[in-house]
Each structure stands twice: as structure tokens, then as C-alpha cells.
Amino acid sequence: MRKKICRHIAPALSAAAMAVVLAGCGIFGKPKTEITPQLPDDRESIAKSKEQKVYTPEELKRGVVKGDWAIESVYGKKAVGEDSPFIKFVPSEKKMYGNNGCNVINAGYVYNAADSTISFDHVASTMRMCGKEGLTDYEINTALGATRFYTWRVQDSDYYLTFYDESRREIMVLMHQNFEFLNGTWRVSAINGQPVNVEDMKLVLDVDEGKLHGNTGCNIINGDLETDMDHPNSISFSGIAMTRMACPDPTHETALVVALEEVSAARPVSGNEVVLYDDRQKNVLTLVRTTDK
Known about the structure:
Elements: H1 15-18, E1 19-20, H2 44-47, H3 57-61, E2 67-74, E3 77-78, E4 86-90, E5 95-99, E6 104-112, E7 117-126, H4 137-146, E8 149-155, E9 158-164, E10 170-176, E11 184-191, E12 194-195, E13 201-206, E14 211-216, E15 220-227, E16 235-242, H5 251-262, E17 265-270, E18 273-277, E19 283-289
Antiparallel strand pairs: 1-7, 2-3, 2-4, 2-10, 4-5, 5-6, 6-7, 8-9, 9-10, 11-12, 11-13, 11-19, 13-14, 14-15, 15-16, 17-18, 18-19
């Protein structure tokens, strides 16, 4: 089942029941003052902070480290978790929040773009028992403690961040998926590659709220928009509902609803055009940005 990005962290248990301070236990060989990991109910409070969410290429060129990153690999192994391992950087707080695939983690972080250095301190984690074998939660915690340098690259419109230890050995790779390009009002210009000329067929997408609103050209349509950090560019629509006004020609309306249910990925063609694909990489919807409501 697809998981909305803002829903990866499970509801918080009491700190007394779950909290263990990794740094305080000397996991990195440097005892720290004991702290308790913050356990937000979910990522909603973090994602809706006042941080600018759009991560631009210009910021990456400056070496800015912020935003949501899915942990792709650690010590050369694919990152595996009961939940999707991820990190969210919040520069204004100088903190990192995340999940190692099993437990909630947070830490302070500092970086210097001039010499590409980055490090984490006061790393803390909850201590929930994990029910699966082969998870990489321990490796992720260890890699964070060993991180000293970073680099970034762009590949197929996704951003990749790589961490290195003091010997410049690669120890973790993370991917940033920026779905902000979906926000706004879109005219449906094609369904399954066939041009559509229905003036009022428009979709309003809100990534932060995880919502779809719009008009089929005849009926009002609503639904949920979900993203999945496990797969590049992965989105899906669910809970689609619409009014039931009789339409002169329901052909395009039916095709739109079916296409929305098949969507599994989104990629920007330009700032004003987006293509939505099914799980076979077939173009099922082409959207063109519009200022019309």
C-alpha cells in the first residue's frame, strides 16, 4: 500500500516507554548530555513548518542541505525497513528528523558548503522492537555517526545526496523527491495519449494537503493524492468521488476517472506541463498549467 510522505512516523508513545539516547550511550564513542528524542505524532507538524519546501537546483549548487530525503542505501546495501527510511532536514532548527526503517530518529546537524562537510550530533532514537529480519536500522544509525562529508547530484530530475566518512568512503545515499511541481491548477490536455478538448476539465492538486479537486467537464471530482518515497516520482490517487449530474457525453469523464486510478508516477515536462504514468510507464494523463479556476 502506498504511504503518504507525511504519514511515515507512527503515533508517539511516551518517552519513558520508548526513548533511548544513542549518543548518551556512547554509540559513537563520544558520550553526550542525555536528551530525549522528539516524537511528533506524525510528520505533519514538520512538513507544514515555515520552511520553504521547494528545493531548487540553485540551492543545491550552493550546497544547501534541507528538505525530505529517502534513504536509498547504506554501506553499499539497499536501505530496508518496516517503514520507508527517510531524513528530513530543517535548517532553521539545525535539526534532522526521520525514521531508520523501524524507529524514529532525530539529531542536530551542521554543514559547511564551502568544504562539503556535514556532521550529526546528539543522535537519539526510540527503541521499538522490529518485527522483520534484515533491516538496516542499525547501519543507518551508525552511518549518521560516521558522516563527515557530502556531495550531491541530479539524475532524472531527482536529487541525490551522498554521505562519506572521514576516509571519504561512501556510506549513505539519499534521494530527494520534489513533488511541488504538481501544485496548482491544471487543464487535462490528453488522456492515454489522445488529445482532449473539454474546456472545463481541470484538476487542482495540493501536495501539502494530499488532495485532488477538480471538474470532469461535467461533474465535480475530489480525491486523495498520495506520494511514496520508496519509488522515484511515485504518486497515486485514491478515494475518488464525484457528483452524479447526467452528462451529454460521459466518454471523457469515464476515461479521466479510470486514468486517475491508474496513475503511479508523475514527471514534469516543463514548468507548465506534467505527464502522469501508470505502472507500465504508459502516459495516461497530460496536464497543462492554467490560471483559470
